[in-house]
Backbone:
């Protein structure tokens, strides 16, 4: 092996070790942001400054939408019309991908690798859009076409993963690329290993940068509930929004992120996720303001 190849391999090993260590201590450091103003300020500056991410549920969670026509006035191109029964929130990602000039698909998921995920594939990574992707080292993945990226989103839905889309400074820091205004993150998140399971432990000023889609509603149908309690598992709800109160499953709307994982684990249709036109409009019009991914 040549000297430069040995050097690259050492750098890769070091990077993986650093990421794994950081990942494994994430809950500890997240709790510190609630206890120390200084740590909160440092963490926000280094990892979360100007972040804004939206949670998009997997298309398989959409099971009770209104039967009307959605018209999403997409700032980046044209009016986009679909029937509610056909349009699902993950379509937002596809519309954004179609407008991107630079696309990069990671060859592995940092979260699933670091947590040694047992339920979802480690080699299914994030998508990044924008000029900053040109600076991402080739060892992390590949430059992709629009068609490849769209297929990747379809596969994420088939795997049962939820999605995050927006500006995420952590990615810019970990991969040493930037500016953050030129890197749009599209994560495909499993309920067991996602980095953002730290949300309940973070100070509210930081955790509020991870947002549920406007007008998305997750609610229970307790008449259908058989008290299997699968939705109460640690590996279901990102926001710790689900609890058992008075003998009934309850979802705290102020904590729910609308990821829809609870809908997928319930086999008795006791939890439903609904959304409307407002959900689509708000994100599509905001993403272009966050990251200039069309350069």
Residues:
């Amino acid at each position: 092996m040549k000297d430069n190849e040995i050097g690259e391999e050492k750098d890769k090993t070091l990077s993986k070790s650093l990421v794994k260590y950081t990942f494994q201590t994430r809950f500890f450091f997240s709790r510190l942001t609630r206890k120390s103003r200084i740590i909160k300020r440092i963490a926000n500056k280094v990892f979360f400054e100007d972040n804004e991410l939206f949670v998009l549920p997997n298309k398989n969670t959409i099971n009770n939408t209104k039967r009307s026509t959605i018209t999403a006035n997409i700032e980046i191109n044209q009016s986009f019309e679909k029937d509610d029964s056909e349009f699902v929130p993950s379509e937002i990602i596809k519309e954004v991908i179609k407008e991107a000039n630079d696309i990069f698909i990671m060859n592995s998921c940092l979260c699933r690798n670091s947590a040694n995920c047992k339920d979802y594939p480690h080699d299914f990574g994030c998508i990044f859009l924008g000029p900053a992707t040109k600076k991402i080292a080739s060892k992390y993945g590949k430059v992709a076409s629009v068609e490849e990226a769209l297929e990747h989103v379809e596969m994420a839905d088939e795997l049962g993963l939820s999605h995050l889309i927006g500006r995420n400074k952590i990615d810019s820091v970990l991969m040493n690329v930037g500016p953050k205004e030129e890197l749009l993150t599209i994560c495909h998140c499993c309920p067991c290993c996602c980095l953002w399971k730290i949300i309940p432990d973070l100070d509210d000023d930081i955790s509020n940068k991870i947002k549920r889609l406007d007008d998305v509603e997750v609610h229970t149908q307790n008449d259908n509930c058989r008290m299997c309690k699968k939705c109460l598992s640690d590996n279901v709800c990102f926001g710790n929004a689900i609890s058992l109160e008075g003998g009934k499953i309850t979802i705290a709307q102020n904590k729910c992120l609308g990821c829809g994982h609870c809908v997928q684990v319930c086999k008795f249709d006791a939890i439903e996720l609904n959304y409307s036109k407002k959900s689509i409009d708000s994100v599509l019009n905001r993403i272009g303001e966050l990251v200039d991914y069309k350069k």
